[in-house]
User: Fold these one by one.
Assistant:
Number 1:
Amino acid sequence: MDLDLIVRECNLFDDSDINSVVQKIQALDEVYESVNLVKIYNYFLTVSKNPEILMNVIQCADRIRDNSTLSPLLDLLLMKNIESEKDLYINVRVMCAKAIANLKNTSAVTPLLYCLNNKDEHYKIRLACADALGKIGDKYAVAPLISIVKDEDEKSVYLRESAASALGMLGDLRAVDPLVSILEAQKGIWSKFTFLKERVIEALGKLRLNDDERVFNALKNSLVDESPQIRINAIEAIMDSENPKAVETIRACLVEDNDEEVKKNAMIALYNLIGREILDEVANSPNFSDSLKMEAVSMISEYEEDE
């Protein structure tokens, strides 16, 4: 193939009519097989400097997911071929990180960590890199992600949330202590750490530490958090924990919590753990609200239809 000829045929450098260029790029898959499309896309990623065109090419390449695309994607992520107006390429680099994650190539871990650990980097790029590290699943990323989760001076709480989620995906037991410490330390519904705690609870749930009492106690203590969403997340994590105390812990939440949505989620969790009997109990008890009883009756009807 004459790659330069294809560049000219697609008018790749015609910035005056981006839509036309994008249409020509998208039409290439009607002419070339995947093995040649990959070479074309890789070349385009190398020579183009237009953010809109680059994003389109990244999307096209991501549909094929060939490992040869990793190199030009990393060059873009690290801005090796672009010297000026770097702010124009933030979304391009975010898309690069997502495409790199889909390749699941562990050789990308070090460059991703480089961007993640650069506190001068744009937070969107750091978020995308944290997510990519979780999806790639290389345990080499665990220690740096733990450092970010623990770093109370980190200016982006969103990044700490993404790092916590990535640790959940990685499933490494080294993450337990720092994650539990966050639950033990941060309090209050209006705290900026509320969403961080939600991600931490989700991560602990994914670790499935059935016999770790400290984890279970941290989740149990989250059932009295001021944020209803944190209490709901804790209920789900306890439900999945397979801890022998799970049923009695969630039952107490069903009876004592003052939020209807939390009670509903507690009832559903108990249904998943012990079956229909909890639905009959709620439907027939004077101790629950009419709305919760109606929800129980609705679930009973669905249960009977399934039967």
Number 2:
Amino acid sequence: MGVIPGKVRQTVHNLAQKYRQTERRKAEKQEFEASCKRLSVNASWDDYLAAREQTLCSVREYFLFSFYEKTPEERDTYLTELRRNRFIHEIGDDESGYGSVPGNKILFNLLFGEFLCREWLNPTACTAQEFAAFVKKHGTVMVKPACDGCGRGIRLYSYAGDEDAFAQHGELAGAAVLVEEMPAQHEQLNRLNPHCLNTVRVTTYTDRDDVHVILSTIRTAKDDSVVDNFHAGGFCMAVNSKTGVIFSDGVDGQERVYVTHPVTGVTLRGFALPNWEKALDVVRRASRIMYELPKCRFLGWDIAFLANGEVAVLECNWRQGVETQIPHGRGMYHELEALKAKR
């Protein structure tokens, strides 16, 4: 008698699973059709299914990487999110949440202070008086969630007297945030956009013998936002990792292309970043130290070029996003696959 209920449960489970799969496919197809309409793209559903079978891409990635106009060979160069997750698992990198060193900004700042080139404070670890003195010293500071990414939750706070600072400290203490000095940006980057700290994401893979620089991509805000992150409405350009010169137009999350910066009018292609050799040296030294920690091999370093000539590491990203490939016109999948065998 006990076998029948078990079979019934299995049948119900199979039917529910089939229903969920049908609903997911329906939503996926709706997203596909909406993207075709929004971008005025004549792409076929069967072509998307072929690309997904080959690269494990999502609908979003199919359009983000313009797979509808790429050959199967070109598509196959891209690291999609599911390929990234598989790669991270295969090399034994951290697959957890924001508790690891690269994911937790407070832990990272504690261990990598020599690369920060700026003062910072943990509101949970200081008094209200110390917090007020810090903000008063710097005038305006950046408040950042310690365990989040993609530019979410970042805001500025300006000193408006001790009482106001005391109240702000009361809100931040225990809230898993950190407060950082706003360093002055290099004059060359102010030419690009003076409203935000224009940062470069340098993607690295470290093994026992070398630090491999895979891709370099600069991000900027398209308006007067203080956040340059691609997910926060900014756009990005490809940087030549050997020379530090931008060699692509800009592209944002809606696949819009920018030949010049919409704020300053600066031509993007050919724009040279300052102190590039120093930047590479900083990234390589930091990557080598990070390699000494467990599960930290495939990383994305966010760096900024400062007015005093220094190159600051803003943060290190594990499970980094795949969007940095977009302006390069190619992906990094095969290069990473070739490197993963060596620990």
Number 3:
Amino acid sequence: MEQNRVMAAIETILFAMGDSVEIETIAKALEIPEEDVRDAVHALEERCNEPQSGLMINWLEDSVQISSRPEYYEYLVKIAKAPKKQVLTDTLMETLSIIAFKQPVTRAEVENVRGVNSDFAISKLVSYDLVEEVGRKEAPGRPLLFGTTEQFLRSFGIRSLSELPDLGTDQIEEFREEAEKEVDGRLDI
């Protein structure tokens, strides 16, 4: 299949699906190798990077999605009802960070790190589609495991979890000391 036709087919698939689509799924649908799909998506991405384009390509792990450019969002708002802005409080950001760096992780493991009940925070992150249930831990009671979603990647502008910064032992120790001071402050010790 000719490259322009492949690009047009991928553009059509991504537009119609709305959500991200795995490269493997596109390759099967078009009956071409995955590498040809990646090449065509990269070419489509270059075309979308032109100043006259209002669209952009988002890579999310081994999936791809087409979306509107953030700088044109104001025009969409004028036509569609503006979605309610999600506010990530310090508590939600702390909980989300723990899940992002330690995933898959149980609610109890999050609470162990935070030192407080995290039911509300995890439920709110699930409702924001930043966190999802990813399975059950092979342990007594088979507790739920949580991990981040593709929406998490989109929201933070990263393509893969591998782009998250590495936490060195110094940073971990600094975070631990800050957490202990915060707990001591709450207890007035």
